[in-house]
Amino acid sequence: MKKSSMSAVIGMLLAAGAIGQVQAAAVPADVTRATLDNGLRVVIVRDTLAPVVTTELNYLVGSDEVPAAFPGTAHAMEHMMFRGSPGLSKDQLAAIAANMGGAFNADTTQGVTQYYFVTPSQDLDVALHVESLRMRGVDVTEKDWAKERGAIEQEVSRDLSNPSYKAYEQLQAQLFAGTPYGHTPLGTRASFDKTSAAMLKRFHDTWYAPNNAILVIAGDVDPAATLARVKQEFGDIPRSQLPARPEFSFKPVQAKAVALPTDSPYGSVYLAYRLPGMKAKDYATAAVLGQALASKRAGLFGMGMDGTALYGGFAAQFMPQAGFGMAVGIFPRGGNPQPVLARMRSILAQAASKGVDPALVDAAKRQAIAALEFKKNSVDGLANAWSQALAFEGLDSPDAIRQAIEAVTPAQVDALARATFDPAHAVTAILTPESSGKPIAGKGFGGAESFASSPDKPVQLPEWAAKAFAKLSVPKSSLHPVDYHLANGMRLIVQPEAISNTVVAFGRVQTNQDLQAPKGEEGVADVLGQLFQFGTTHLDRLQYQAALDAISARASAGSSFSLAVPSTHFAEGMKLLADAELHPALPAKAFPIVQRQTAGFVAGQVQSPDFLTQIGLDQALLPAGDPELRHATPQSVMGLTLDKVKQYYAQVFRPDMTTLVVVGKVDPAQVKQVVEQAFGDWKASGPKPEVDYAAVPANHAGQLHVPDTSASQDSVTMAQTIDVTRDDPDRYALNLGNEVLGGGFYASRLYHDLRDTRGLVYSVGTSFDYGRNRSTYSVDYGADPDKVKAASALVVQDLKQMQTTPVSPADLDRAKGILLRQMPLGESSFGGIGGQLLGLAIEGKPLDATTVAAKHYLEMTALQVQQAFAKHVRPEAFVTAVKGPAPKG
């Protein structure tokens, strides 16, 4: 069962706070620049971390340039770019993108629309040719737009079903009224209903020109050969006479309060102020201000530490012409938001009147500059950094922001805080949890419905694409990890990488609260997880964070723990990480605060539609009394004592249940020595605990509807237990078949049937979740209430087809290509490398298991896929859970 813990929610909010961080990369030596005669700007950055390349084609057009009363035009044009171009049909485009195996998508913002590929380097020519064809022209017919409009309207319904998005939309409208920023790039159903194919074609022909674009290519490529290829593909595309850009005339913000209901288990308070944009002279100052206010040593975060709020923080979002900073406070369901709001106002008023602590400004600058180096640790992150600098910030390179940050002074930060945090110009939003009703057994949204079978005719690829994908082979892994087992039973895996002067570490203690917590102590792991934030027995929380700031490091402790640190400070960082992990303070003073916070969160959680959907689904899938059905209640949390929490920590945190993966510029032998010094005194006693759930019988079919009054769209999960575990050889055939069903964007069978042909959904996902003893298969999608029945029936129909008819050779090869090409992509970032090695170690698999899997996929037959689906998947045995309005029809 997927339980949403307090720690997980806080983690998401902390991640949101990272918006305020400057995300850029230092200028590497191997950078090639050019501007073609037609105005296309090109930047090629060589990065040899993995045989992977990222292309990002940034068109300098977005929702700023849309016609009046048509706020979603740029977004709609982004969608239609995937429906084909002269010389490349939508089916060919989908098949090509799927065969490449990586990421292929786009994003529309206020001033930039970005199209990107992340793919093995061998497919760079294909990616460039696709983007060349799409720049030259796009097929936009009324028939195709009518189909895509159904999908994009489902996206609108999805986002407008999210109360946080609604709040964001209203905040933006208030902060930027009378300017293009007064609306989001999403668009509305009403405007899409009035949009014509001719309007979209005109928008493309006006703005999608080489002299309005910046092409960034990063990865393991030959720069000279790549530039020659770019000139060949794009050089003869004519430049265009671009229209005038919209004017931005920002008026003073008028204070306003927005109140909205939410289906979240907690309430939220947002206090927003307008900030300078990315092209403003004081952008770096604004970024440092946001980072300083988001610090764990700052007052807003302190609200969560002293019990004023469940969580406090600060986030900043920047657009080219303006931005906004937002203080965030979280309060429990049924709680009073006013004390949280008052504290937030007080903290920001103090920043305006007395300034920001210079120590926090200094730490924010050092952390932001360190982040520049960390961006090198990902091929697509490096491409993002250059696109951000050139297309969004209007800078010459990512390094330009480094110089600007270094020049920021505390006096400049204080002046900006004084000018910004004026209560007369603040927009406040309060989201208050409200009940939507109890779950009920669903009726009328399942059952049979007849459709024409999915076409199984192979797509005829263009010759240039067919040649690129003609041969499938097992990719050569670039990983050569060194595997150690320390004397205390702790496992250490080291993967040296020299692409940057940084080190990242990912650790996990294998625990399972459902199997290890005594009866009546549900929630003890959540309380423990929150207490890790209060420092160590040697350093209180502020001292501990100051020590991390001093070496420009980030660390987190708990059953999952991590460290990111410059390589020169690796030993110091590992010592701090071990101190937090092995010697948590668990202070008596903090315990009642965390206990009340966790109980308040749980009280809201157990009434939230998300939780009711998940627990209802699990109750239908699992036998009564199964330990996975255990969950915290306010009563179980309030029944805990600090001694019980300490006993749980002593019982479950063991070195022989712990794995640590280190990736970066290190020597494995030295890493072993450092880790032994930091963790070597940690000892375990008694036999290893059991942390894996036992096997369960097959579930019966069922239906569940959970009302959610904040949603206009239904979120649907169809799930079932399956008898294939993570070590069963049949998993290879199921994985391959699952790529036919749900992999490869438009090329997948479910995308074709549910979105492309019928316009029933915006997206649909399928996944196998394999455990050691139990596993599940699930299908997820969002749809309007009147489309749920049809979409569910199509899912069942396509699964039955997988069981009765072998997939075509083209579908099989495409699925193989996806899985084989994903292997190098998983090694193209420090995070991907660390996550892969840690996951394999935790599951007890060999560290070259991805290569072993690739060999299985290469040899797999269509008959084996058909037999696996016939044997293990039960199309009529899904439990279908619908969250949102009652399904119709």
Automatic annotation (TrEMBL):
The keyword Cell wall biogenesis/degradation belongs to this UniProt entry's keyword annotation: no
Any Pfam family the entry gives: Peptidase_M16_C
Protein keywords: Signal
InterPro entries (UniProt xref): Metalloenz_LuxS/M16, MPP/UQCRC_Complex, Pept_M16_N, Peptidase_M16_C
Domain of life (superkingdom): Bacteria
Signal peptide extent: 1-24
Domain (Peptidase M16 C-terminal) ranges: 196-367, 640-817
Gene Ontology molecular function terms on file: metal ion binding
Keyword field contains Transferase: no
All residue ranges annotated as the Peptidase M16 N-terminal domain in the record: 41-188
Family: Belongs to the peptidase M16 family.
Name of protein: Peptidase M16
Source species of the chain: Dyella thiooxydans
Lineage: Bacteria, Pseudomonadati, Pseudomonadota, Gammaproteobacteria, Lysobacterales
